[in-house]
Design brief:
Length: 256
């Protein structure tokens, strides 16, 4: 069983809305051992595949979907968006967008920011998204691109949940990386991301981008680097697991 850091439900407001369950995980619970100890949900990091499969099943259960009904990303730190119509693995994608019922969209990270979006469309069922965003994602504009995509698909009101990531104090970088963010993102975003001298706070940048678009966010979890018992951090540990975030929309208005 995975113990989420937080979980909740986007509840219907508009006539076409359907509820969507979400959960944010850390290390707590899960079956992994050693450097992957706890709730590692990544298959690509060297953990036992059978154990990861069990963790993924438990992850799916957090949002009331079957273990085989997950949509997973194999992200490349870009801004490519996959339109998900079936579960599976989506290579080369940093963002998943879907209007399917009972498919869990998953974003993971171990310092990068995992986040989800829920876009109400009035009389039509919502469109949902899961996004992976590190500093390269900020530069590539994956969050802004996904918001644009959701709006193009009719989303009029968007809500967000943003998971844990490394903070600016723990993530010092070479000046050229900061310069790339400064030149590639809106001024509010770069100011938020670069508020700590010499560092990058990707989550602050993501939250600023969301706020610029009028999107309210629930923020879950602290700095990955500082919380070794509860969160995976690639920068701290090198070979380690991944935490994540999941969202699944349900057809029924009542609790699934
Ligand atoms: Zn920190």
């Amino acid at each position: 069983m995975l113990l989420p850091l937080a979980s909740g439900v986007f509840t219907p407001v508009a006539p076409g809305d359907r509820p969507a369950s979400w959960a944010v995980t850390g290390r707590l619970g899960g079956h992994s051992r050693g450097e992957f100890f706890g709730a590692n949900i990544a298959r690509h990091v060297g953990d036992d595949p059978d154990i990861v499969a069990r963790n993924l099943e438990d992850l799916a259960a957090l949002v009331q979907v079957q273990g085989h009904n997950l949509a997973l990303m194999d992200p490349i730190h870009g801004s490519s968006i996959a339109q998900v119509t079936r579960p599976g693995s989506f290579n080369g994608m940093d963002s998943l967008v879907s209007e399917q019922f009972d498919v869990g969209l998953v974003a993971m990270g171990a310092d990068c920011v995992p986040l989800i979006l829920y876009g109400s469309r009035g009389n039509k069922r919502p469109v949902i998204s899961a996004i992976h965003c590190g500093w390269k994602g900020l530069v590539a504009g994956v969050v802004a691109a996904t918001i644009t995509e959701l709006r193009m698909q009719g989303a009029s009101q968007i809500q967000s949940v943003v998971g844990p990531s490394i903070c600016g104090s723990c993530y010092s970088v070479a000046p050229d990386r900061r310069e790339l963010i400064r030149t590639a993102t809106p001024i509010d975003v770069s100011q938020a991301a670069l508020a700590v001298a010499g560092g990058i706070d990707v989550r602050a940048g993501v939250l600023s981008q969301l706020a610029l678009e009028g999107i309210t966010s629930i923020v879950v979890g602290g700095c990955t680097f500082e919380n070794s018992k509860t969160l995976f951090s690639y920068r701290r540990d090198g070979q380690t697991g991944r935490q994540g975030i999941i969202i699944a929309m349900h057809e029924n208005q009542g609790q699934p």
